[in-house]
Amino acid sequence: MQSNIKKLDKSALFELLSKRFSSADKKLSQIPDPDLLHDATKSAQKIALAIREKKKITLVGDYDVDGVSATAIMVDFFRQIPYPLEAIIPNRFHDGYGVSPNVLERINADLVITVDNGIAAIAAAQVCKQRNIELIITDHHTPSEILPEAFAIVDPKLSACEYPFKDICGAQVAWLLLALVKKELNLNIDMKQFLDILAIAIIADIMPLIDINRTLVQEGLKVLMRSSRPSSIIIRDFLNKSAVSSEDIAFVIAPRINAAGRLEDASIALAFYTATTTAEAFKQFELLGKLNDLRKATEAECTKEAMACVNHTDHVIVVSGENWHEGVVGIVAARLVEHFGKPSIVLSCENGVAKGSARSIGEVNIYELIKANASCLSKFGGHKMAAGLGLLEENIDTFRIAINESASKLDPKDFLPQNKITGILSTEDIDLELLALLEQFEPFGEANLRPSFLLHEAEVVSIKLMGADKSHSKIEVRQFPHALKTLELIAFRTVYEMPEDKKITCSYTVAKNEFNNKVSLQLLLGKIY
């Protein structure tokens, strides 16, 4: 394994990471004009007219982090006009996904706007038409051939859309549209104030952190550190760091915000984002934390059962269960991808109907694979790396066979994970200067992964278990036989035992650790080979 992996010093690493970006970072002023989004100006004019004519406006969001973030930005913007806006986030369990005839039953409005959903809402669009409700759809998911019959559809993935950067999330689409509404109404609202929420949405929805996304996340994390928004104050107090990273958001904050919609109701997350006092924000954040703990326990049980159902010869894993919690199937699918290195679909069955989530790996476009076998399904939607779907329970086996037949025609290289090892560092190069070098290339995330380094047959000097329940491992290693300095690897949620040969071959990443205002370097164990 070591033979084809380069040995790097800091200079070589800097050069290698610099090649990830084809041009210099964009400034906020260089973000493409929102009016390049198809139907965006038309939509902004309609919204401005509805406000002038005091029409009833209802917003329909989504229950994931992106959808809740988009809804929160809209709510805050309308609050500052000020103008009354009814905001509804469908309940995953009672309403299903997005704007639907079911949700429209409780809406009495002149204008309905969707955020992070609606591109597949053909039936809902018909209901709006029958009831003389004007419908503006804002979404970022991949459209099908047939589009809903709406007043306007704003989605960068529409073939008619000329917006130059397509990989933006639902909250970004909403934010860009609001910039045009601001212009139409000549409002004095600073659009930069929403960048804290926007950055969370971009990271949580696993958008590629390149081009304008990189700029918005960089600036958004800065806004998060100084914003007077009560939710942002609570986030930075909770993290207690001199600077918040994209990984803090991805692994600590986003799961909490997501937990509300997964287990109970996303209105809790919306109440956190839109709280007007830190006391109210703290109360909602505490509740989100409890829901996230429950989510972890539910997910662990479901993952254990799902793993036992896997057909190891399949190219695409498709598993289903009667009592699996619908709110965690997406995370369980991600766990299966992580464990088996294959795209995975996890379905929850109830009364003969299966609903679930898909997650992908490498270059496999899971949305296109699902779409190719749509005849087995009652509904589906999503993008390259993640999708949602529904079908009759009796059709699951047919679908599993069909999607695996489609996957068998793909290039095997498409299934290789993207977390390739960057290189091998000398022990002497692993210091605070290296940390400073890496920080220049943040934020890390999709399409700009944190560099991963290799330890090849390093000597395991000692292992200590940490944490109240001794569930984390601190592994002291000597990278090369004659190295004077040893390295410490941290393996969270892993009890690592001393191997017989006292050797370890693994990947690791370099992270910043802040404790009691002291900054130190932390090596996090990746994959053991």
Report on this model:
With 529 residues, this protein is an alpha/beta fold. It folds into three domains: 2-12 and 419-528, Beta Barrel (OB fold (Dihydrolipoamide Acetyltransferase, E2P)); 31-287, Alpha-Beta Complex (inorganic pyrophosphatase (n-terminal core)), CATH 3.90.1640.30; 309-415, Diaminopimelate Epimerase, Chain A, domain 1 (Roll), CATH 3.10.310. 37% of the residues lie in helices and 20% in strands. The protein has 16 helices and 17 strands. The chain has helices spanning 10-18, 40-52, 65-80, 101-104, 122-130, 170-185, 195-204, 211-226, 230-239, 246-263, 267-273, 278-308, 329-340, 366-372, 396-407, 432-439, and strands at 7-8, 57-60, 86-88, 111-115, 134-138, 152-154, 317-321, 344-350, 353-359, 379-382, 386-392, 424-425, 453-466, 472-478, 487-491, 503-515, 518-528. The strands form four sheets. The protein has a five-stranded parallel sheet with strand order 3-2-4-5-6, with helices on both faces. It has a five-stranded mixed sheet with strand order 7-8-9-11-10, sandwiched between helices. It has a five-stranded mixed β-barrel with strand order 13-14-15-17-16. Helix 13 (329-340) links the parallel strand 7 and strand 8. Helix 2 packs across helix 6, helix 3 runs antiparallel to helix 7 (195-204) and helix 11 runs antiparallel to helix 12. It is globular and about 80 Å long. The N and C termini lie close together (9 Å).
